[in-house]
């Protein structure tokens, strides 16, 4: 993680230091786990020292485009559909459609499409719901990635939030979750 990334994690830890978390989850990518541990280290109430780490909360898998300039990747994915940027794809279509376009543009078709992405992510959401330490009124920390956050907000935000702009690193988004629904309460705070 960069020094800026560590500073973002410390800043978020300070913002959340007075929230008693009943559980914590994160992506299995090192920067997400390091961020979650740093947040928990700042927490005054958490008995938790480590999050539950799971690949379910990973960023979208970009296949052939992993590690490349994503502006170029989104151009390759969107240009055949008359849109040349991620923002333009999302404005005209959706984040889900952007995933489908990227998989179609991947010469090996290894990138996750929308259905594959949500099959994985839904397993993560179910993991949270089935955790025995979580009950009505529980507070749960989830550390993931920008496009994962955008995907959650697009799906559960009821169109109330701008998903054409990436959330700031270290920003906070609040979800209300029960057995029947997930609702975005606030985004990119």
Automatic annotation (TrEMBL):
Site (Transition state stabilizer): 145
GO biological process: negative regulation of glycolytic process; regulation of pentose-phosphate shunt
Keywords: Hydrolase
InterPro entries per UniProt: His_Pase_superF_clade-1, His_PPase_superfam, Phosphoglycerate_Mutase
Source organism, top-level taxon: Bacteria
Pfam family, one: His_Phos_1
Binding site for substrate: 31, 59-62, 146-147
Protein's UniProt keywords contain Ubl conjugation: no
Signal recorded as keyword: no
GO CC term, one of those recorded: cytosol
GO molecular function terms attached to this record: fructose-2,6-bisphosphate 2-phosphatase activity
The protein's name: Phosphoglycerate mutase
Organism (species): Liquorilactobacillus ghanensis DSM 18630
